[in-house]
Amino acid sequence: MPKEIIIYCRKFMRNILFNRAQMAIEIAHPNSRNPSKKAIREKLSKVYKKDETAVVVYGLKTQFGGGKTTGFACVYDDLDSRKKYDQHFRLIRDGLADKVIKGRKATKELKTRVKKVKGIEKAKVRDSANKGK
Amino acid sequence: MEEKEQAENPQLLQNDIETFGTLCKEMNETLEESQEKLETLKEKLTKMNETNPPNNSGSNTFQYIDVKSMLLLNYVTSLQYFTLCKAEGKDMQEHEIFERLSYLRLIIEKLKPLDKKVDYQIEKLLKSALTQSQGESVLPNRKQKEDNLKYRPNLNNFDSKHITEKADQNMVTMEGEGEAEGEDSIEDLSDGSGDEKKANPDSSDIDPDNINSDDIDSDALERFAVKKQKAQAKNKSGEHINEEEIYKAVTNNPMKMVDTSRKAQKQREKDQNRMKRVDLVRELKHDMLDLPEEVNYGIASGNRRLIEQEKEDEDLEMKYFKRISYTVKEQKQREKKIKRLQKSDYSGITDGFHDFQRIQEFMGKTYGGDEDEEMQKHMEKEKFLQEVRSRKRDKKSKVKFLDEEINSDEAGDDVLFQKLPNRGNKSGTGDNKPKKGNKKRFKRRKN
């Protein structure tokens, strides 16, 4: 069965500061399950003629009964601008950044060390701790 | 003795004789003058007493002058007697006359300060007498006012209100001494001066007619004088404030305290608005009143809030390109609401049951303002409770109560029974006391 997906873009806005275009998406997928983010990204990149990796899709919610989902999308100009401006957890979702897994105790110790110091030295303490690792 | 004196001091005698001569001359002259003056004084004073009603001040001065004149007379006569004796050449070393002379002299010197105070009055009296005799064309009222301003300030003319205790005493001591002299005999003064402080304050009041010199006490005199003054002041002052003019607040109808606190009002308005939303009330409104209906399809009362919130959420999400997340607490509440709605799908029946409760609560509420309302509702409540209790006491009625509950259609989904004592018996039997375990359950159900 062919999976038809129709995407409607609403509330389109061109955000120059972040080098992106942000919009709200409405996807109609009758008689099929919820579309994956990948599929949506492909479609959007074709439409706006940008890299697949530069497109972000998030906040998808399907209506009760199926057939319709609503969500949001950001289409960046480049991958680089995306890496620069996009939120960290979204990059992690797409595999473009690594999650830093520190032990619970380690983070708490770092926190106490940072608290004792004031101002710019906090950043120094953090860097030294990270370098140590 | 006489020959010895003449032989020893002939010069002193001559000197004495010369001085004696001059003194006699002076005495004669002064006597003549004083005689004239006294005559005139007497005439005028008698005239004053006849024409005008005798003022207390005037009478006091008259008495004082009388007394003073008598005193002086006595003194002068005794002096003359003394000179006579000396001229005859008697031995004056131990003579009775000296006592007399010294006594009188004492009194005169004690009266000297009083003399000053009375002098002013005497002068004024003389002047007024002369002016009256000369010209009587001026109106008496005007003249009185003018004369009053000319006079020296006098405490007696003040209102009785202004008289303080100290002022009373000061005035009274003056008046007391004057009156004492006029009424007492002269012999009692020397004895009275020492006994004034020992006088009893509880002695009876004085009558001006029946005065015995032995019965008078100084404190009683003072009180009498104060009374007189106050009576004087009242009679004199024409500006006597009537009691009608003084404002008195009305005390017949006590005003009810209107509680303007906004809290009670706010609560009342809140509850009224709540009742408007109740479906039952709205239906009743449609039935009773002839207002046009407002129709809302698909929205039951319980859903409205949720739907509104959902709308709001959507708007926000669209605005900020973000999905809204709730805290765990809020999520649970929402789920509860949704469940409730899902449970009661026959919305018309069960919602009304809930509304009945609401209406009852609303009717029973009081907002602290009106006491009458509170009393009424309290009485109604008590009545209802009494009925319920009386039902419960009767054993037979108890069973009926339960049966009614079971059979009624009004009890909807909210009324559930887990265990009943006798389900099969509709008529009712004797052993229908619920067991202890059942009692607890019944109680819970009520809550």
Low-confidence stretches of chain A: none
Portion of residues in beta strands of chain B equals under 5%
Oligomer: heterodimer
SSE ordering of chain B: HHHHHHHHHHHHHHHH
Helix percent band of chain B: 55-70%
Radius of gyration of chain A: 20 Å
Q: N-to-C terminal Cα separation of chain B, in Å?
A: 137 Å
Largest sheet of chain B, in brief, is: none
GO biological process, one term (chain A): translation
Pfam families (chain A): Ribosomal_S24e
Keywords (chain A): Ribonucleoprotein, Ribosomal protein
GO cellular component, one term (chain A): ribosome
State the main characteristics.
heterodimer, A: 133 residues, alpha+beta, Alpha-Beta Plaits, four-stranded antiparallel sheet, B: 447 residues, mainly alpha, 16 helices, 68% helix, rod-shaped
Structure description:
The complex is a heterodimer of chains A (133) and B (447). Chain A is of the alpha+beta class and 133 residues long. Helix content of chain A is 38%, strand content 27%. Chain A contains five helices and four strands. A four-stranded antiparallel sheet of chain A has the order 1-2-4-3. Chain B has 16 helices and no strands. Chain B has helices at residues 2-8, 10-51, 56-88, 97-134, 140-150, 165-183, 187-195, 218-236, 262-277, 279-288, 301-320, 328-343, 347-364, 371-393, 395-407, 436-446.
